[in-house]
Design a protein that fits this description.
alpha/beta, Arc Repressor Mutant, subunit A, Aspartate Aminotransferase, domain 2, 3 domains, elongated, binds pyridoxal-5'-phosphate
């Protein structure tokens, strides 16, 4: 039998009840192998006397350990450390997993997935859409989160509405009416975990296998993956945005189900869809009854005048499915986005969502709604717009000074990245050499449909301060091919 000194200092002033203190001490002794499997433990009366506690306290400690499977007890034999400890069971199970054979029944992926940028700390990543996370109002968010979590009446840890918290839908409705000219009721809004989920839900609800979907090319590959079971039709983009005549020509040949567009700052080229093409696209969709999936992902980030309003603000015939995100204005890790559409569409999307994800994170949704109601998000957006504007000016000046004879920035008045032309340069070789030299940027090839190279770069600047941008430009300059 073990000698009964498993380092037990009972302390009745602690919040932890005495029976748990005893149970934990025995558990530590078992885990440290000071008590071995099948080793006998003292009877409850003996141990209670040794420790100077009531016998029931020891009984409760043993019961706890029996329930967790660490010890076994029978009236005939007494109490023993379990022969088959929970830890050993876990270890055996995982060793079994490691030996499992490969799985050969996967569907082939529907399309090429772009690789994520590197995550090591030494590489400066000029990723196209990343916001600055240092300045996110974390303290206010934490306070709002705590308030939401402890709000007993709201009971936010329970199941909730798959469409998202009413408070957040109301705040989003108010924001859209004020900032984007989009009028929607709470029933016409679905809160999702990022616009990526919104795109996926829309695809499931609207696009059948093999249905034609027109997409911008160059374009946003994650949307192509989300829309993947449709037959994607790449439409060229020029200085006025997506070529609407090309969509019209396509529709004449065969019906299309939807078109995915980024009219505000075309992704990745940042051009703005011209007013004439906006009207033409809305009219085309009305006439041929196809959906316009409008991704308005960074409308908060513009530096001159008021931003152009979305197609959704001019939709008189119910063809636009509008997708927005808080990933740029707050933080992508919060996973908060939204879809605005007629109520029956929202109901259908919510039903799909219910069987995939049930609902969003209610506590986060309520906390962010509070920040919006307090004007905190709007103040943050204004501060960030100013900061990004300064960084953009500094970045433009650096690029002009060090790479002015190599790069021509096709400047636009908004966005968190620059689109730059590098005529005559093998930009993919440059990107490889730059990554080896500690700076990562995307080249046009990443956004093409045919995978063919083009001499353009997309350089994200919003997440980097001016000193980091200066270092990045030096590292790029060192390795121009
Ligand atoms: C075109 C586009 N849409 C949407 C998003 C945001 O996606 P999510 O809301 O899923 O974070 C991004 C972010 O990079 C984007 O570039």
């Amino acid at each position: 039998m073990a000698s009964w000194t498993f380092g037990l200092d009972l302390d009745e002033t602690l919040d932890t009840p005495v029976f748990l203190q005893i149970a934990r001490a025995i558990l530590e002794a078992i885990q440290a192998r000071r008590l071995k499997p099948d080793e006998r433990l003292p009877g409850t009366r003996t141990l209670a006397a040794t420790l100077g506690v009531h016998r029931n306290t020891v009984v409760a400690a043993y019961d706890e350990l029996v329930a967790e499977g660490w010890i076994e007890s029978s009236p005939a034999r007494g109490t023993f450390v379990a022969r088959d400890l929970p830890l050993a069971r876990v270890r055996r199970a995982t060793t079994g997993l490691a030996r499992r054979p490969g799985f050969d029944l996967l569907h082939p992926p529907t399309r090429r997935r772009p690789q994520d940028p590197p995550r090591d700390r030494r590489t400066i990543v000029l990723a196209g859409g990343a916001p600055d996370l240092e300045h996110v109002p974390k303290a206010a968010l934490a306070r709002a989160y705590r308030r939401a979590l402890f709000d007993r009446r709201a009971a936010l840890l329970d199941y909730g509405d798959p469409r998202g918290e009413l408070a957040l839908r109301q705040q989003i409705a108010a924001m859209l009416a004020e900032e984007r000219g989009v009028v929607a009721t709470e029933d016409e809004i679905l809160v999702v975990r990022g616009s990526q989920m919104g795109l996926r839900l829309i695809a499931d609800a609207v696009v059948g296998p093999g249905d034609r979907v027109a997409v911008e090319s160059l374009g946003y590959p994650p949307a192509w993956v989300a829309l993947g079971r449709g037959r994607l039709e790449p439409i060229p983009v020029d200085a006025d945005g997506i070529d609407v005549d090309a969509i019209a020509a396509l529709v004449e040949r065969a019906p299309i189900r939807a078109v995915y567009v980024t009219p505000h700052h075309q992704y990745p080229t940042l051009v703005v869809l011209s007013a004439a093409r906006r009207l033409a696209l809305l009219e085309l969709a009305r006439r041929h009854r196809f959906a316009i999936v409008e991704d308005d992902y960074d409308n908060e980030v513009h530096y001159r005048g008021r931003p152009v309003l979305p197609l959704a603000s001019q939709d008189r015939s119910g063809v636009v499915l509008y997708v927005g995100t808080l990933s740029k204005v707050l933080a992508p890790g919060l996973r908060l986005g939204y879809v605005v559409a007629p109520a029956p569409v929202i109901e259908r999307l919510a039903e799909h969502r219910r069987y995939m994800d049930r609902q969003g994170d209610r506590v986060v949704e309520r906390a962010v709604a509070e920040l919006m109601e307090d004007g905190e998000v709007q103040r943050h957006a204004r501060r960030m717009r100013r900061l990004y504007g300064q960084r953009r000016d500094a970045f433009l000046a650096l690029l002009d000074r060090h790479l002015g004879d190599v790069l021509r920035v096709e400047s636009h008045d908004g966005g968190m990245a620059l689109w730059a032309h590098a005529p005559g340069i093998d930009v993919d070789r440059w990107a490889d050499a730059a990554e080896a030299n500690g700076v990562w940027f995307a080249t046009a090839r990443r956004f093409t449909f045919d995978g063919r190279p083009r001499p353009y770069l997309r350089l994200g600047f919003a997440a980097a301060d001016e000193a980091t941008l200066a270092r990045a430009v030096r590292r790029m300059t060192d390795v121009v091919p």
